[in-house]
Amino acid sequence: MKPFILFSHATISLLFFVTVFVVITKSIVGLITKRQYSNFDKKTTVFCLIFLYCQFIFGFALYFINKKAELIDPNIINQNNLIRFWEVEHIILMLFAIAIAQIGQVIISNTKKSFTKYKKRLIYFSIVLIIVLSSLFLAKYK
Ligand code: HEM
């Protein structure tokens, strides 16, 4: 069971990175060319959120599978700062990223002018990307 969920969690990460890359580059192009905010732009923002919420579900499934394993063998946690990282820091940072993405999406959809929509989208989803990346690469230093 865990290998499937871990594989799904890692795979959806890739889908998220592709989509957030499209969201950020299209926002920069939208600001430079001053073009109209399109349905495609709306959809890619929503897909970014959908992938983050999927990660929330698969992530907590992983968290509870690990917790169950630790109940069976409490020594697991003591052995490894890395496990503690995935179960504490990674999750806290990701919850922040999901909250900022959700708040951003609501604010963007309530904004009228295309130029301002692109500007806000660039700001919010760049912050989300920085938090998600830091929540993955910090693992290297554990
Ligand atoms: C609140 C949401 C999230 C929770 C609760 C969560 C939880 C977890 C847990 C518990 C692990 C450790 C799995 C293990 O090795 O035992 C993990 C690993 C991982 N998470 Fe998350 N995660 C969340 C969001 C995300 C997001 C948004 C991304 C990327 C877009 C992500 C990418 C990863 C990656 C790449 C790993 C390492 C997988 C591997 O070792 O192959 N997670 N996550």
Describe what this molecule looks like in 3D.
The protein is mainly alpha-helical and 142 residues long. It has one domain (2-141). It is built from six helices and no strands. It has helices at 2-33, 39-72, 75-79, 81-87, 89-109, 114-137. Helix 1 (2-33) packs antiparallel against helix 6 and helix 5 (89-109) runs antiparallel to helix 6 (114-137). The longest helix is centred in the middle third of the chain and has 34 residues, at 39-72. The chain starts with a helix and ends in a 5-residue tail after the last helix. Protoporphyrin IX containing FE is lined by residues 6, 9-10, 13, 16, 52, 55-56, 59-60, 62-63, 66, 86-87, 90-91, 94-95, 132, 136.
Bound molecules: protoporphyrin IX containing FE
Question: What Rg do the Cα atoms give?
Answer: 17 Å
What characteristic shape results from the CA principal axes? elongated
- Overall pLDDT: 91
Secondary structure category: mainly alpha
- Distance N terminus to C terminus? 26 Å
* Total helical elements: 6
How do the strands and helices of this protein lay out in sequence?
Elements lengths: L1 H32 L5 H34 L2 H5 L1 H7 L1 H21 L4 H24 L5
Helix pairs in contact: 1-2, 1-6, 2-5, 5-6
Brief digest:
The chain is an all-alpha fold and 142 residues long. The protein contains six helices and no strands. It is elongated.
